[in-house]
């Protein structure tokens, strides 16, 4: 193999499939699609460091499922080429669903292995606010999780929070570690300064994410924040019982430590002025901080508060005391619940939420109800009732609320149900809108209808150099993760604006999303590769202990819970792109950006050597496959191999060597139920295995055979030697292998009267036969060759053309043509090579004159011949059929299909056939 | 009024130069409905639509498009059954669908030539009141009641199936004897369009031009086989035969065989006949 | 004993070779089978089968490679689709469907070739000569009976 790999005239294309073949003998164009290896072959030294740090483990197909391997792997130490390869099934559905592209599978797998720092870097690679998303995200990842089809999705949010909390708790250690989060990104810790200066307006998630990316690309960034604290809505909009400030502040501090300059208490209202001041580019990321209020009667009474204002005042430390105030919250989303639960903690004795239909997440609603908040849904508010100078309540009607159609809820008010809900403080939480007053008066930065700032796909506004990202872009609220994604996008577009061709490109996505089907999930769980346990939920502080303080309500997972939850991940995409391998490889040989290649090669001849497939013993349960210590011959070979799953020892499942081994012949062969043919090689390999068993362990060996086919040179002699060496031979057709009295019991129909028909052993080896290789049907189609009824490729003639096919220029070698052993395969291969060389050496090709021909004057161009031809040798050109004489094999199917016989077959023309008919019938 | 709507639409198409020609029906000087080609907006008053609109106008499409050269569209008035023929032609790449503007007419049946109180046999059990494809639909209006007649396809078929081989042979030979080789059936068929018909060759390889029954039988059988899976049952062939040969019965029989063997009915979708299509993976017996 | 005129369309690679094998293995087959060899059973058009009957054949048998084994990949699939349609058509106009047969014989099936053509011969012998050829109306075909013409009116 090594000499093949090294030969200068041989190009090895691995991970490749022939997609299509066109042309004809001597002149084929072969299109090959190669899946990328993701490892640069010339640089990889095979040191295995990458595999030792990879967190993903899967079944090892090379070891036939007898052991596991990592996502980055090499089949065996003797592999040619000897480089490693990474298996990527596609992008995992969790990652695909996340707007920020978080490598969910990666950090979950690292949590499973207790590598929390590595998990933290994996999260931080795409998300500078793990503590926020780990608490308040709308988790599209969980909605897309493959496990939804089986039981419940992995609790990704809680796992992310676990890592974030761990990182915060160990932040001093983390500060001293090497930051791996930049691997696999175009960012650097200490980049060359570009001399460009970017102003970011707003320090919310969008603004800060963009700012961090930009400094990592070498630009200078100043963030202008109008409030007295940074963080935007994360800091002033989410109350601390859901998101404590200290972790968020730490994450913002890390951003500042990397060079982002945040100027607090600075409101910008002169954007063109900033450009004049020398900023090369501006990013507007101001968010939507105005709450919506309906213009109903008395809605401008001063005791009508706005959600955003209320939360900001509470969260910025103003000592609000709501004791004695009865609060009515108008609204149906998460913000309404935040407002209500904050109000509770500020002392109000009574809070009601009025809405048409509740839209918040279920667990938030539950938590709110537990805290004594009353939710009154199915209401439309009509007016605020004021008496004197105090609000008495809100007048509403009951309504039947249906679903949401085209973004609007269907609401039917029920007449005659007007009533007043009592309260003296109304807080509006109907939604938010943006403030556009800071934009230039001359309209040089256009807004968009109905809300938002106009921007193109590069997030450019109508003013040169000014970009927009985050909630303000569309003018309505989204989730934090959407803002982070927008921030990353803005950083890329601004970089491209500032540096032109040198700016970073949009990341490419893997074309396939690897959702795992239910059958595969069940298999994985049955094999013990994934946990079958139920989803873990974090616990919350009971209501009594939380309504009078702002302590965080939902608790973090314990380590046991986190690991148990992480074990539920199915690892759909296999490789998670966590970049641990990149960090470990000293040669820099790993390249996750490699792409599929499609290349066309011009070749003169093709030799197919696609091999065979082992008969699946699971299809013949009578032979006991599936019972412990019943192995196929191929699996047994892996046991013998020093680089195999048992390091070359012959061991039973319980770890002990066997004492009695039975070898069963003809499994899947010579059997009407499976295959009628004899697989030719099994008798001899069974003898070899018998001898090897005796070499490796001290065991009694029993061979139960129907016939002994020892047809080759030296084969009979070998048989005799093995027979003389003390191996027991019984002639008979094995009927079953069963578990009986603690042993494996083999039963057969004995060949001769009065011979044993049963033996008890503790290990059974099944001599499974050969089948046509998987996908041989497609290969045959692609190359235009036939298969015989047993599925192997059809040779041109069994005696006179064993290595050729009916298609000129395509040759066969080895077991793909029929079951055979290695000496015969090698001989056949030599023959195929010789014929191929003879063909290429000729320089010219002689064709059979029996070809299809068109009488152009009669041809109607109807195209029936084109579809009839099995070889695609006919095309319609300029309205008439044209035959490619090199592809035509001379079958005449086109001539029979042609309605008015414009198409004919030379030497078998209709005139000739009819003349034969007339002669024969005279 | 369907006619009014048709005329207005045709006028619009021609005046705005969306099409170069409208193929529809008009009345002859003697009051018989016949096909008509309209090229100018001012002529659209000649267009009619009535219960005598039997002709399958899909027949004229291929030649008309060829006449126009590389560009230019043709509008055509098609009944639901005619749109099936259009599907077959499109499936076989004989017509570029983009060059045809189909004016689909909802139809409740057309009457027989020589008994205007009765619907044609093919309309009696027709369930296709709406065209399968159209670019512009002219919906149905209330039409005067016309009695369907007493023709019962099933009982004819059962009766015929019971004949012995000899009786069947006699039946058809007697009919083929009366055939004039006028080729009207072939000429009116939308899917029969070879430049030189197999049965009209100068070298008479398959049949001569003569009038022996055998030759005429070969013509009819051969043509029926060529239509297998492609004939949509418009029955125009039978209508135009000057000697009343029941040609459509042969085509119907083959259509039933095709439906039984392949589950396929011609013209329902723009998909070619299973007799012509490439072998699928299922059939490949692998 | 009536000796049928039977035309057998055989494909070069499978059924013709099978017929050869039947011969060299000394398996007996009826001598009145007239073989017409084509490269593939797909070459056999329904029109030529009708022509065979028009030229006086009493029976036509088409033998090709087994499905999945066609030497030309899928020519026999086309034949498998065409022949049943042709049989229905011929049956409609009064030819017994047993007079056309399609079967599959591989190059190694000399036995099967012999068996199939012998069976077919016996079937045709039992049916008698094909009444396909006709001299004309009034001679061996009766003049049309008006009541058998389908009325187009009323």
Total count of strands of chain A = 38
What is the strand content of chain A?
15-25%
Main sheet record of chain A: 7 strands, mixed
Question: What is the global morphology of chain A?
Answer: globular
- Helix percentage of chain A: 25-40%
Mean pLDDT of chain B: 85
Instruction: Give me the oligomer status.
Output: heterotrimer
Low-confidence stretches of chain B: 280-286
How many distinct folded domains of chain B? 2
| Count of alpha and pi helical runs of chain B | 10
Protein chains sharing the most extensive interface? B-C, 49 and 41 residues
Task: Specify the helix fraction band of chain B.
Answer: 25-40%
Radius of gyration of chain A: 37 Å
User: What composes the largest sheet of chain B?
Assistant: 6 strands, mixed
Dominant shape of chain B: globular
Report on the architecture of this protein:
The complex is a heterotrimer of chains A (922), B (286) and C (154). By secondary structure, chain A is of the alpha/beta class. Helices cover 28% and strands 20% of the residues of chain A. In chain A, strand 7 (197-201), helix 10 (205-216) and strand 8 form a beta-alpha-beta unit. The mean pLDDT of chain A is 91. Chain B is an alpha/beta fold and 286 residues long. Helices cover 35% and strands 10% of the residues of chain B. Chain B has 10 helices and 6 strands. In chain B, strands 1, 2, 3, 4, 5 and 6 form a 6-stranded mixed sheet that branches. In chain B, strand 5, helix 4 and strand 6 form a beta-alpha-beta unit. Chain C is α/β, with parallel strands linked by helices and 154 residues long. Chain C has a single domain, classed as 3-Layer(aba) Sandwich (Rossmann fold). Chain C is 36% helix and 15% strand. Chain C contains 4 helices and 4 strands. In chain C, strands 2-1-3-4 form a 4-stranded parallel sheet, with helices on both faces. The N and C termini of chain C lie far apart (51 Å). The chains are: A alpha/beta (922), B alpha/beta (286), C alpha/beta (154). Chains in contact: A-B, A-C, B-C. The interface between B and C is large, with 49 and 41 residues.
């Amino acid at each position: 193999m090594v000499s093949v790999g090294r030969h200068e005239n041989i190009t090895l294309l691995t991970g490749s499939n022939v997609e299509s073949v066109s042309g004809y003998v001597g002149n084929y164009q072969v299109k090959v699609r190669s899946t990328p290896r993701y490892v640069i072959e010339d640089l990889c030294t095979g040191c295995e460091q990458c595999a030792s740090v990879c967190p993903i483990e899967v079944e090892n197909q090379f070891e036939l499922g007898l052991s596991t391997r990592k996502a980055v792997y090499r089949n065996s130490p003797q592999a040619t080429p000897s480089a490693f390869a990474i298996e990527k099934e596609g992008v995992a559905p969790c990652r695909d669903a996340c707007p920020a592209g978080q490598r969910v599978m990666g950090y979950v797998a690292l949590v499973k292995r207790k590598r929390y720092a590595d998990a933290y870097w994996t999260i931080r690679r795409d998300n500078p606010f793990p503590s926020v998303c780990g608490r308040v995200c709308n988790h599209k990842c969980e909605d897309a999780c493959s496990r939804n089809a089986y039981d419940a999705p992995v609790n990704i949010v809680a796992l992310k929070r676990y890592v974030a909390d761990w990182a915060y708790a160990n932040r001093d250690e983390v500060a001293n570690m090497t930051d791996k989060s930049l691997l696999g990104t175009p960012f650097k810790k200490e980049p060359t300064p570009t001399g460009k200066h970017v102003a970011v307006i707003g320090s919310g998630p969008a603004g800060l994410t963009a700012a961090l990316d930009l400094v990592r690309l070498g630009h200078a960034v100043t963030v202008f924040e109008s409030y007295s604290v940074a963080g935007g809505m994360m800091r002033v909009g989410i109350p601390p019982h859901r998101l404590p400030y200290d972790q968020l502040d730490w994450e913002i501090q890390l951003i500042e430590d990397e060079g982002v300059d945040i100027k607090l208490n600075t409101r910008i209202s002169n954007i063109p002025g900033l450009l004049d001041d020398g900023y090369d580019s501006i990013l507007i990321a101001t968010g939507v901080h105005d709450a919506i209020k309906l213009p109903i009667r008395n809605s401008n009474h001063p005791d009508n508060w706005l959600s955003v204002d209320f939360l900001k005042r509470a969260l910025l430390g103003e000592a609000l005391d709501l004791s004695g105030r009865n609060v009515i919250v108008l609204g149906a989303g998460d913000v309404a619940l935040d407002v209500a639960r904050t109000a509770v903690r500020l002392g109000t004795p009574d809070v009601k939420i009025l809405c048409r239909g509740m839209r918040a997440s279920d667990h938030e609603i539950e938590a709110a109800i537990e805290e004594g908040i009353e939710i009154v849904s199915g209401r439309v508010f009509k007016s605020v009732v004021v008496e004197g100078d105090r609000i008495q309540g809100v007048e509403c009607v009951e309504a039947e609320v249906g679903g949401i159609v085209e973004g609007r809820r269907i609401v039917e008010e029920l007449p005659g149900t007007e009533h007043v809900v009592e309260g003296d403080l109304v807080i509006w939480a109907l939604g938010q809108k943006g403030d556009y007053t800071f934009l230039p008066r001359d309209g040089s930065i256009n807004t968009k209808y109905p809300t938002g700032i106009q921007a193109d796909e590069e997030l450019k506004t109508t003013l040169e150099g000014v970009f927009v990202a985050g909630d303000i872009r569309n003018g309505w609220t989204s989730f934090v993760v959407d803002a982070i994604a927008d921030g990353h996008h803005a950083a890329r577009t601004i970089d491209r604006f500032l540096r032109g061709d040198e700016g970073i490109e949009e990341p490419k996505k893997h074309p396939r999303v690897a959702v795992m089907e239910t059958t595969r999930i069940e298999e994985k769980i049955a094999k013990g590769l994934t946990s079958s346990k139920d989803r873990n939920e974090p616990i919350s502080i009971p209501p009594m202990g939380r309504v009078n303080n702002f302590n965080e309500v939902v608790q973090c997972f314990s380590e046991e819970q986190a690991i148990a939850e992480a074990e539920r991940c199915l690892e759909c995409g296999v490789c998670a792109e966590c970049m641990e391998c990149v960090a470990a490889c000293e040669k820099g040989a790993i390249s996750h950006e490699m792409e599929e290649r499609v290349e066309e090669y011009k070749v003169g001849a093709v030799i197919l050597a696609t091999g065979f497939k082992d008969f699946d013993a699971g299809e013949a349960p009578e032979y006991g496959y599936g019972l412990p210590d019943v192995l196929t011959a191929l699996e047994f070979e892996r046991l013998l191999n020093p680089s195999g799953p048992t390091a070359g020892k012959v061991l039973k499942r319980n770890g002990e060597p066997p004492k009695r081994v039975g070898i069963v012949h003809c499994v899947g062969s010579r059997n009407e139920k499976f295959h009628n043919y004899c697989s030719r090689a099994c008798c001899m390999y069974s003898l070899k295995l018998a001898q090897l068993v005796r070499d490796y362990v001290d065991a009694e060996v029993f061979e139960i055979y129907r016939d002994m086919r020892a047809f080759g040179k030296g084969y009979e002699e070998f048989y005799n030697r093995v027979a003389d060496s003390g191996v027991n031979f019984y002639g008979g057709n094995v009927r079953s292998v069963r578990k009986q009295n603690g042993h494996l019991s083999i039963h057969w129909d004995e060949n001769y009267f009065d011979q044993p028909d049963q033996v008890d052993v503790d290990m059974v080896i099944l001599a499974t036969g050969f089948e046509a290789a998987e996908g041989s049907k497609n290969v045959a189609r692609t190359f235009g060759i036939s298969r015989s009824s047993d599925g192997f490729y059809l040779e041109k003639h069994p005696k006179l053309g064993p290595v050729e096919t009916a298609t000129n220029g395509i040759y066969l070698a080895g077991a793909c043509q029929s079951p055979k052993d290695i000496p015969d395969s090698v001989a056949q291969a030599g023959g195929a090579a010789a014929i191929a060389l003879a063909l290429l050496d000729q320089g010219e090709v002689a064709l059979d004159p029996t070809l299809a021909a068109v009488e152009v004057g009669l041809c109607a161009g109807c195209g029936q011949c084109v579809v009839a031809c099995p070889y695609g040798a006919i095309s319609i050109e300029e309205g008439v059929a044209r035959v490619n004489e090199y592809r035509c094999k001379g079958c005449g199917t086109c001539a029979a299909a042609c309605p008015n016989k414009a198409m004919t077959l030379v030497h078998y023309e209709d005139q000739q056939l009819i003349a034969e008919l007339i002669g024969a019938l005279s | 009024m369907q006619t009014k709507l048709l005329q207005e639409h045709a006028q619009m198409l021609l005046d705005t130069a969306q099409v170069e020609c409208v193929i529809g029906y008009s009345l002859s000087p003697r009051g018989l409905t016949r096909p008509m080609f309209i090229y100018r907006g001012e002529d659209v008053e000649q267009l009619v639509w009535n219960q005598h609109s039997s002709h399958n106008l899909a027949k004229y499409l291929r030649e008309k498009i060829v006449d126009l050269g590389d560009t230019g569209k043709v509008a055509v008035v098609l009944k639901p059954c005619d749109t099936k023929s259009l599907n077959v032609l499109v499936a076989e790449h004989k017509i570029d669908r983009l060059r045809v503007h189909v004016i689909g007419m909802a139809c409740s049946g057309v009457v027989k030539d020589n008994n205007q109180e009765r619907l044609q046999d093919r309309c009696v059990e027709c369930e296709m009141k709406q065209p399968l494809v159209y670019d512009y639909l002219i919906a149905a209006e209330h039409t005067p009641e016309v009695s369907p007649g007493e023709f019962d396809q099933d009982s004819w078929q059962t009766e015929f199936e019971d004949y012995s081989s000899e009786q069947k042979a006699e039946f058809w030979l007697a009919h083929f004897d009366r055939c004039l080789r006028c080729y009207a059936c072939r000429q009116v068929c939308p899917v029969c369009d070879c430049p030189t018909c197999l049965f009209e060759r100068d070298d008479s390889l398959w049949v001569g031009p003569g009038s022996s029954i055998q030759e005429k039988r070969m013509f009819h059988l051969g043509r029926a086989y060529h239509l297998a899976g492609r004939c949509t049952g418009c029955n125009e062939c039978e209508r135009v035969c000057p000697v009343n040969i029941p040609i459509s019965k042969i085509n119907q029989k083959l259509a039933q065989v095709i439906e039984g063997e392949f589950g396929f009915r011609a013209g329902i979708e723009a998909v070619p006949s299973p007799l012509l299509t490439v072998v699928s993976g299922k059939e490949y017996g692998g | 004993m009536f000796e049928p005129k039977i035309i057998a369309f055989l494909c070069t690679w499978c059924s013709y070779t099978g017929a050869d094998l039947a011969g060299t293995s000394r398996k007996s087959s009826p001598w009145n089978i007239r073989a017409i060899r084509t490269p593939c059973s797909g070459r056999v058009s329904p029109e030529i089968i009708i022509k065979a009957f028009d030229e006086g054949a009493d029976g036509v048998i088409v033998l090709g490679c087994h499905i999945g084994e066609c030497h030309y990949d899928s020519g026999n699939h086309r034949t498998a689709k065409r022949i049943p349609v042709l049989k229905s058509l011929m049956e409609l106009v009064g030819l017994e469907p047993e007079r056309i047969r399609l079967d599959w014989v591989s190059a190694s099936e000399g036995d099967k070739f012999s068996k199939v053509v012998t069976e077919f011969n016996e079937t045709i012998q039992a049916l008698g000569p094909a009444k396909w050829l006709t001299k004309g109306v009034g001679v061996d075909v009766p003049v049309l009976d008006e009541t058998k013409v389908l009325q187009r009116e009323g």
